[in-house]
């Protein structure tokens, strides 16, 4: 038996250190939180997707009284981008969230497992790594590919 050690690379930085392009996308993600429909969790998530041609698409979490019928912000934005602009690779995705007091979370939130799998599919589909920017009020994380968030991923059969 041997142990495999899997390394994940995440850059942590202060939100003020983001590049201008990343700040613009973060701004779209924060604005999208205000369009969240989250009467059950009171947790408003926004995601903004930047495409290869610079187009920005955003989305927010949309909940349902039958809980599994709702959708996370990341997949709302990603699926809209993929369906509206199927020929444009996705270059970057930014996520932000506000808590039940309406405040931007101090630490960044991370995409759920299903959203990670959807991000993986988009990377594979366009053969293009997606930079993931997670934004909180006090810190931000940058991940250069979904592979860093989804080790030992299921990507073929
Ligand atoms: N949610 C997202 O939209 N994205 C995430 O990365 C984590 C969770 C949503 C789902 C649900 O509407 C609410 O946040 C609470 O889980």
Summarize this, please?
This protein has three helices and six strands; from the N terminus they run βαββαβαββ.
Notes on the protein architecture:
The structure is a single chain. With 157 residues, the chain is α+β, with helices and mostly antiparallel strands. It contains three helices and six strands, in the order E-H-E-E-H-E-H-E-E. The longest helix has 14 residues. The two termini are 26 Å apart. Tetrahydrodeoxyuridine binds next to helix 2.
Ligands present: tetrahydrodeoxyuridine
* Uncertain stretches: none
**Quaternary structure classification:** single chain
Q: β content, as a range?
A: 15-25%
Secondary-structure-derived class: alpha+beta
Give descriptors for this structure:
globular; 157 residues; alpha+beta; binds tetrahydrodeoxyuridine; 3 helices; 22% strand; 6 strands; six-stranded mixed sheet; single chain
Helices and strands, with pairings:
Elements: E1 11-13, H1 20-33, E2 44-51, E3 56-60, H2 73-84, E4 90-98, H3 113-126, E5 131-135, E6 140-143
Parallel strand pairs: 4-5
Antiparallel strand pairs: 1-6, 2-3, 2-4, 5-6
Helix pairs in contact: 2-3
Bound molecules: tetrahydrodeoxyuridine.
